Amino acid sequence: MKSITDINQQINNVQTAIAALKSMNGTVQSVMIAGSKPVIRIARNNHCARLLAQGKASFIHVGHDGSGRFRQGVFELHGCRITWSESLH
């Protein structure tokens, strides 16, 4: 079980990460606090492409669902895991 201190720290990390994402013109789609790192899902943007090119982000999952093929990218920011999905047509 997490302590209140741990949860408060994770909430602070989320707030800091969201502010940074907004400064990068990021669009936050959802936030989940579970496990040791909060997960923030964003809409793909040019910042994601730059981080991929710099080796600071990577694709962790490639799959297929009812909408077609997709891949999921990830990078770390202020103690949070930032993810996004891309359709592969």
In short:
This is Putative prophage exported protein. By secondary structure, this protein is of the alpha+beta class.
The counted number of beta strands is 5
Q: What are the low-pLDDT stretches, counting only 5+ consecutive residues below 50?
A: none
SSE topology string:
HEEHEEE
Average predicted confidence as pLDDT: 90
The quaternary organization reads as single chain
The span between the termini is 42 Å
Strand neighbour order, sheet with most strands:
1-2-5-4-3
Task: Name the shape in a single word.
Answer: globular
Characterization of this structure:
- This protein is an alpha+beta fold and about 90 residues long.
- It has one domain.
- It is built from 2 helices and 5 strands, in the order αββαβββ.
- The chain has a 5-stranded mixed beta sheet.
- The termini are far apart.
- This is Putative prophage exported protein.
- It comes from Candidatus Erwinia dacicola.
Secondary structure layout plus pairing:
Elements: H1 4-23, E1 28-32, E2 39-42, H2 46-53, E3 58-65, E4 68-77, E5 80-88
Parallel strand pairs: 2-5
Antiparallel strand pairs: 1-2, 3-4, 4-5
